[in-house]
Amino acid sequence: MEAADRKGYARLIYAKAMRYFSLALVGCALAAGVLGMRVYFLFALCAAGCLFLAWSWFTHLHAIGFFHADAWKAKKRRRRVPYMHRRDKTKRYRPSFAMRNTDFDDDLVSATACEEEALTPGERARACVLSRAACGALLLLVSLVIRV
């Protein structure tokens, strides 16, 4: 990888990790708000961090081929993937909350954005593993730093 590619790859990992982190913070705040105590926010942060680290580990195992899903695909008929969950969408309209920085026509987009489709499947899996692990470690760190 060249320096510009590495920088875009790091931006991709950072963007995904911050997206996961913000969703986890909102979920933990909602859980603490429902239960009504600040201690539950810390418990939820710690649990979310552990879940993200486990999710990262299972993604890594899947990437190296530990789960042999090909044996299952032969037995099952492959279900049709809904349009909303497909990677290669051909439709141009997206709601505003689903837009990314690559959807806007800006001069800086080509210099700052890294599209997942341009990466190989191995690099894409590695980016997912690193972003989920970074989010889990950050959630655990935040749960240890906050005092009750």
What is shown here, in short?
Keywords: Membrane, Transmembrane, Transmembrane helix. It is built from five helices and no strands.
Would you mind describing this structure in some detail?
- The chain has 148 residues and is an all-alpha fold.
- It is built from five helices and no strands.
- The chain has helices at residues 3-35, 38-63, 70-75, 109-112, 121-145.
- It starts with a helix and ends with a helix.
- The model has no long low-confidence stretch (mean pLDDT 80).
Principal-axis shape equals globular
Please state the structural category: mainly alpha
SSE string: HHHHH
Number of strands: 0
End-to-end CA span = 45 Å
Quote the average pLDDT: 80
Report the major sheet. none
Contiguous runs where pLDDT drops below 50 for at least 5 residues: none
By oligomeric state, this entry counts as single chain
Count every helix, treating DSSP H or I runs of 4 or more residues as helices.
Answer: 5
Share of helix among residues? 55-70%
Question: Which value, in Å, is the CA radius of gyration?
Answer: 18 Å
Strand content: under 5%
Number of structural units classed as domains: 1
Please supply descriptive tags for the structure shown above:
148 residues, mainly alpha
Q: Which helices and strands, and how do they pair?
A:
Layout (H helix, E strand, L loop, with lengths): L2 H33 L2 H26 L6 H6 L33 H4 L8 H25 L3
Helix pairs in contact: 1-2, 1-5, 2-5
Keywords: Membrane, Transmembrane, Transmembrane helix
